[in-house]
Amino acid sequence: MSHDTKILCSIFLLLLQYQFCTPTDTINITQALKDGDLLISSNQTFALGFFTPGKSTNRYLGIWYNKVSEQTVVWVANRGNPINNTSGSLSFDITGNLVVTGPDRNNPVWSTNVSDPTVAKNSSAQLRDSGNLVVLDSNGVVVWQSFDYPTNTLLPNLRFGVNRKTGLDRFLTSWKSGDDPGPGEYSFKMDLNGSSQLFLYKGSDLVWRAGSWIGRGWSGIPEMTTTFIFNLSYVEDQDEVTLSYSIRDPSISSRLVLNESGTLQRLTWNNNEHRWVEFYVAPKKPCDSYNYCGPNGICDPSNVGTGQFECKCLPGFEPKSASDWYLRDGSGGCMRERGGQVCGSGEGFEKVPLAKVPNTWTAHVDRGVTGLKECESECLRNCSCNAYASADVSHGDGGCVTWYGDLMDSRVFSSGGQDLYIRVDAVELAQYLKSQRHSHGKKGMVAAIAASVAAVSLLAFFLICWLVVKKRRDRTKGSFIDWKMRFNIVLGIARGLLYLHQDSRLRIIHRDLKASNVLLDAEMNPKISDFGMAKIFGKDQIEANTNRVVGTYGYMSPEYAMEGLFSVKSDVFSFGVLLLEIITGRKNSSYILDNSVNLIGHVWSLWQEGRALEIVGSWMTESDSDKEVLRCIHIALLCVEESANDRPNMSNVAFMLCNETALPPPKQPAFIFKGAGNRPDTSSSASAGAISINDITLSAIQAR
């Protein structure tokens, strides 16, 4: 052999040995991916190769996040047939199928099993930027993809559900354990009986139901809507019933995983802390458990804090076993009161608001119905119909779902859900209507005397303030709302604004969000009130202008106070002020320190000096909450920035409050005035120069 020939052979062998040293996302029919080699997607997000999970010594072919420091596997090929050494290889066989082999090259431990003859020649496999491993024929057509066979993880853009043409069912199955990616006992599937639903199973037993698709999300997951952090896509036609999602910010790594303990987790990667942060988990509470309160029962988690049993019967029903319910066991469910005398004269329906509607296995869905009245009539025509609800609430009430037989797995939420109408007899209906008339009568009375009450309320407010100040001067220290409760109030207000801005059928700008317009119930759950100055926007409208500025200084954004421009960002500004007040326990007008005219200016000064926590009220005792409080101050400063374009929207605010992702540095807030002589002239406005409510002009206005 000549010297030149030896050199060429050596180069060829080196090329074979190091063919995967340069990152690539593709292998062809002549190549093999050996244990130790990697395929890297073109954007470097995902990697494919052989790995060993946990404390195991077995080897598996899988896909994981390439840029995440903690190896996180999202798909496994040979999950049920591990290789016990490092002899694994991924290659194409003579039929064009992608196979994983171990020591015995003639007996693959995994194969794509594609029967298409066109893939036998010139096939290739590519790891795409989405984390999807695809097999392509010579024309570049996808003939197989890993997204059709997910394991325990739902990645963005993966079409989860059923292909009606081929029968392909894409669902999740948990790992056996952290050391064994083999199929575990939990599965998460799309069910097409009745109205399509999502179910979590343990073996063949139902564990949790996500509810039905109601146009903007799933009835059992009010936190997840089409206008939230993720873009949800639901398709139901003659070809498929599928769900997929995309992330609005492509720089965020997020996944939905079914873990081996049987919980679904939405996780987001925190680059600063190098860990996965939990965004959502289910099932979490007793009311999440499937049919926790039995047939015709409904679970209300708000009862737990009051010491009451979370289970109660739906209207017109009573417990089957009073003794079981006394012992707080509602699994036996409920039965019709008075012997079930429905389908008679005088009967009707009682509304259950904010509900997760029952399992639709015993329901009929008619998407051609145009309104609730037609849906009610359809239910009344059949004596076996026990309830009805709208099938789609994304644009008003459309479609109709009617239930027959027992009503299974209902619950109520503090927000979200939908209206459920339960069939009741004449006696029950009369009692319900009487209570409604009483409630409406009280509302009418309140409206009629609102002007008189306003003056009395003002006096009462000053009296309460005097009593509070007096009590604080007492030697005995009063009780304070702790940080956990304050944070829950903040979250509740954020979710309420998010609903008004995005989830409501019509976009609503409150325009007067302040402490006195947030009501707290007995469980300290916040409710946004007083919509007297609210404005309704069209679906595509983002901003409006007014010549008559109304509201409360101190909570009004600069563009609204000075120019009459208002938008969702105006409410965001008000939320930021309110958040600072909740953290500090002081009003925006209560600080004239360090030449700062208000609370915002004082907080901003301390923030620049790295002393922001000094603003926290004396109620703060838990040092372990310092980090969370500081983050909330940071978010508040982002909300009160001078430019509306720089402020986050409420969906971003809610995301920042619930997660630990990095936050951008805040810019200088609005209304930072140095010295009393530099305060803005509040005696003039776009109209008559005064803040006006119900045409009552305030002659003296104090900045708050």
Automatic annotation (TrEMBL):
EC number: 2.7.11.1
Keyword Transmembrane annotated: yes
Predominant localisation class: membrane
Membrane topology designation: Single-pass type I membrane protein
Catalysed reactions, semicolon-separated: L-seryl-[protein] + ATP = O-phospho-L-seryl-[protein] + ADP + H(+); L-threonyl-[protein] + ATP = O-phospho-L-threonyl-[protein] + ADP + H(+)
Domain Protein kinase: from-to ranges: 298-671
One Gene Ontology term from the biological process aspect of the record: recognition of pollen
Pfam families: B_lectin (PF01453), DUF3403 (PF11883), PAN_2 (PF08276), PK_Tyr_Ser-Thr (PF07714), S_locus_glycop (PF00954)
Protein family: Belongs to the protein kinase superfamily. Ser/Thr protein kinase family.
Protein name: Receptor-like serine/threonine-protein kinase
